[in-house]
Design goal:
alpha+beta, Arc Repressor Mutant, subunit A, Beta-Lactamase, 2 domains, six-stranded antiparallel sheet, three-stranded antiparallel sheet, 10 helices, globular, DNA-binding
Amino acid sequence: MSKQEQEKHDGDQVMIKSSEIVQSLLKGLVVIQAFDQQRPTMTLSEVAAETGYTRAAARRFLLTLVSEGYAKQEGKQFSLTAKILKLGFSYLASQDVWKNAKPLMKQLVEQLNESCSAAVLEGEDVVYVGRVATTKRVMSVSLNVGTRLPAFATSLGRVLLADMKDVVLDDFLSTCHIEQYTAFTLTNKAELTAEISRVQQQGYSLVEQELELGLTSISVPVRSQAGKALGALSISTHISQTTKQQVLTSILPALKACAAAIEQLAY
């Protein structure tokens, strides 16, 4: 099968019968996803409440995760272990484009002395699949592979949302959780739609202080040979260190060149 045929095949929607879905696996994944930054540890009762499962069902899933090393139990508290990262790294290991992108991202960081990230769209969030950081800190939270940020309020997310068809984007903005992170955050659906349309036309997204005060980020898509966005590449800086004009005239051309080089590796 040629790459073009494979990309067409991969883009086809597969109809899955409900009888073919393993419900126990699905429920186990829900238990794993119940743990997050706000809930790193939970009791059995809390997991049951968070997932909507009975205490007996939640207990079986938790003990299975513990027995396989994906979770641990300390008294009444349960938490995930580092082994859970193997699930995410299995994805990364299967995606040559992001593995091959790392040296190019490092070169870009050395050139600009700014942190560089790569991400894909997953649900309402962007998920980091690559990260090369400098010693400069521009956000209050640590950013690593696996970090999730809201797509609507990030330049990475808006670049990927710009790749959606209008009807899909409209549904996304109608149903996703939209939060006012700062006084600058765009929360109006019509304004977000207009901004994402602008991103689609100009080929990049620049977001200033919408996710966190002082944070400026600019992103461009990384596309397949068929033109579909495989993910996005971004540079983040602080508004006190870099002006908007500098971002557009110095950072953007280098970012585009890096994305183009990554695309060549993907073909």
